Amino acid sequence: MNEQLTNAQIQESIQKGIFQPHIYLTNLCLAFFQSAAGFISRRLFPIVPVPLSTAKFYEFDKGDLTRLGVGRKPEFGHVAPTVFGKLDHSYDCKVDQVITGIDRISAVNFQRTNAPGPIDPRRGKARFVAEQMNLHLDVLWANKYFNPASWTHVYEGTDTTPTGNQFWYFDNDNCDPVQLFYSLTVAMRMFGLRKPNKIGIGMNAHAKLKTNPAILERIKYQGSEANPANVTENVLAQLFGVDEYVVAESVVNKAPMGKDNDLQFVCDPNSLLLCYTTNAPAIEEPSAGYTFAWDMLGNGQYIAMQQYQGNPASHTDFMEGLLSTDHQIAAPDLGVFLKNCVSPANRTITLPGQ
After folding, report:
1. What are the start-end ranges of the E strands in 142-184?
2. Strand-strand pairing, 86-92 and 54-60
3. CA 308 to CA 314: how far, in whole Å?
4. From CA 247, how far away is CA 34, in angstroms rounded?
5. Nearest to 278 by CA among 44, 71, 83
C-alpha cells in the first residue's frame, strides 16, 4: 500500500497478530553533536561580514599615532605639520564545502509511517552539516589564532625560576596566575595600547588553573555551606580582569574513514591566548584579529546551507554546506600566547584509573 496506516488500521493489525512493529521512541535519540558553547571561533574574535570575496582595509600607523607632535608655537610662525601614515591590508575569502546525501527510497519508510522527528533523515543531515561547518570554523580559527607563530609575544611555562619569556607552570605551587596576568596586562597596554579583554584557553590548562593554590586561596572565603566556593569561568575572568574567559572544548576526529577514532581537542589543551579584540567590526579601533566572512550566495549568511536533487536515477537528495572565510591577524601586538602552561607530566589527559 502507498497510503499511510491509520491508527485504526494499526490497532486492527495488532488484534489480528499480524502487526510487525518498527516503531522508534519519540523522546530518545543518541547523537554526539557537540555543545555550541564549546566552539570557540565565534566567541573570541569578531566576524566581519564582507560583500566581496577579496578587498582591502586600512590601518593607521601605531608609531605615528603615539608620537607627540605638539610644540610651542613660535611668534609669527607655526610648528612643523605632523603627519600620520596608513597601511593597506587585504583579505581573501576562500570557499569551503561539505555535502551529504539523503536516499529518497530509504526515506519513504519514515514518511509512510509518520516516523518521529528524531529519526527524520533530513533533520539529522541538516544538523550534521551545521556541525561540520562549526567544527571546520574552529579548526581554521585554531590554526591561525591559537598558534604561537602568529603572535609577537610568546611565553613558555617552566618548572624552574622563570627568566625572559617564561612563567611558572600553572600546576606548580610557585605559580600565581593573577600576578602573571597582571604583568602581561601592563605589558600589552604599553606595546599594544590596549588592555587585554579576552582569554581563550585549552581544556587541560583550564583544569590546572581551577586547582592552582593561589587561585583557591583568593576565593576560599567567598563560599558558604549551601553555596561552596567554585572556580568558574566567570570567577577566573574577574580575577584576571577580562570580559570573557572562553574554554576551547571542541573535539575533532583525525582518523580517516574506516580507522579507529582518533579524538583530539581542536585547540592545544595545554596553551592559552590572551588578547584584545572588539566584539564587532569597529572603525578607528584596533583588534588582535578579524575573521572576514563572505556572503557568497547573497542571502545574508556566511554559512550557507541548501538542498538539491541528484541524478534522477540515484533517487538521492543532497544537502550542502558552504563557508567562505579568511582569518587575519590584524594586530600581532594585541595577542600574547602562553604555550606549555602545564608541566610535562600532566600534559597528557588520562581518565582516573588509567
Report:
1. 153-158, 166-168
2. antiparallel
3. 13
4. 14
5. 44
| CA 285 – CA 271 distance, rounded (Å) | 27
Contact assessment for residue 133 and residue 100, using Cβ atoms and an 8 Å cutoff: no
Rounded to whole angstroms, the maximal C-alpha distance in the chain is 112
Angle at the Cα of 132 from the Cα atoms of 130 and 137, rounded to 5 degrees: 100
**Is-contact 307 100, C-beta < 8 A?**
no
As given in the structure block, the three cell numbers for residue 344 are 610535562
Q: What sign results for the dihedral spanned by CA atoms 58, 62, 66, 71?
A: negative
CA-to-CA dists, residue 217 to 169, 177, 180, 183, 245, angstroms: 17, 12, 16, 20, 20
Decide if 316 contacts 108 (C-beta within 8 A).
Answer: no
Q: What is the pLDDT of residues 144-197, one digit of tens each?
A: 999 999 999 999 999 999 999 999 999 999 999 999 999 999 999 999 999 999
Residues 6+ apart with CB under 8 A from 80: 71
Q: CA 258, 264, 266: angle at the middle one, nearest 5?
A: 120
**H or E element at residue 311:** none
Helices (H), 211-324: 213-219, 233-240
Q: Are 27 and 119 in contact (CB under 8 A)?
A: no
Q: Residue 37, Cβ neighbours under 10 Å: how many?
A: 11
Q: pTM higher than 0.90 for the full model?
A: no
d(CA 348, CA 148): 20
pLDDT by residue (tens digit) across 54-94? 999 888 787 877 788 888 889 999 998 888 788 888 999 99
Kindly report the backbone phi and psi dihedral angles of residue 76, in degrees, each rounded to the nearest multiple of 5, phi listed first.
Answer: 65, 15
**Cα–Cα dist 325/1, whole Å:** 49
- Predicted confidence (pLDDT) at residue 16 exceeds the cutoff of 80: no
Q: Which cell numbers hold the place of 83? A: 603627519
